[in-house]
UniProtKB/TrEMBL annotation:
Annotated family: Belongs to the TDD superfamily. DTWD2 family.
Any one Gene Ontology BP term: tRNA processing
Single GO molecular function: tRNA-uridine aminocarboxypropyltransferase activity
DTW domain residues: 1-188
PANTHER family to which the protein is assigned, alphabetical: TRNA-URIDINE AMINOCARBOXYPROPYLTRANSFERASE 2
Catalytic activity: a uridine in tRNA + S-adenosyl-L-methionine = a 3-[(3S)-3-amino-3-carboxypropyl]uridine in tRNA + S-methyl-5'-thioadenosine + H(+)
Superkingdom of this protein's organism: Eukaryota
Protein name according to UniProt: tRNA-uridine aminocarboxypropyltransferase
Organism of origin: Eulacestoma nigropectus (wattled ploughbill)
Keyword field: S-adenosyl-L-methionine, Transferase, tRNA processing
InterPro entries reported for this sequence: DTW (IPR005636), DTWD2/TAPT (IPR039262)
Amino acid sequence: CSRPQKVCLCPFLPVRPLKVSTCLYIIQHPAEESRVLRTVPLLAACLPPDKCKILVGRRFNEDRYPELATVCRNPNTLILYPGAEATNLEEVAVMSSSPSVMIIIDGTWSQAKDIFYKNSLFRLPKQVQLKPSISSQYVIRTQPTNTCLSTLECAAVALSIMEKNKSIQETILHPLQALCSFQLQHGAQIHHSKEHLLKNGLYDKPMPKNKRKLRRMELLVNNIKI
C-alpha cells in the first residue's frame, strides 16, 4: 500500500488480486496525484494490473492516446458519468454477457465535468450511472451531496454489478474503511457532505459571490439533482 508501517493497509487488501473480467480505465486529473488520501492506489492494489489502467491528464485525443481511442470505440465500453443521458448500470449489466471495459473519471466533480465535456472521445462509449442508494463511507473528505461516492466506491459498486458478485464491493471497500478509521484515530474529523452542512445550517464558509455556484448551493439545499 506504500504507507508508513504504523498505518499500513496491506492487511486489509485481498491476499490475491480479485479475478474480474471487467477492465477499468481510470482517467485521473493531475491534481489527484498530489493528494495524500487518494483512493485509486487502494483500488489498483485490489485488482490485477491488466484490469486497472490509470491515465493521468486533462486532455485526451486519438493521436496521443491511440489505445484509449480504440477502447472508447469498442461497443462493450461504458463510461461511468451521471446525467440525463446516462442509463442505470444495473439495466446494462442484465443485457451484457461479454467482458466489458469501464471508464471512470477520478477528480473533484468540477474536474471530472471538465474532462468529460472537453474530450470528445468520452462521448463515444455508452454513458451509465449508479443508483443513488448508498452513502459514501469516505468520511474524511467532503463530498458535494450525501450520495456522492469516491472513485474507489464507484468502482467497487460498478464491478460488483458487472461481475454479478456482491462480495467484490465488500472486498474493495475494506481498505477504504480501514483508511478512514486510521485517520479518525489520528485526529482527522468526520466530513459531512456540503448538502448536509447547508441543510443543517452548519456551513461556515463565506457563500460564493458567483451566481452559478450560489445557484448550485440553493439546489443542494432544496434537494434538487444537479
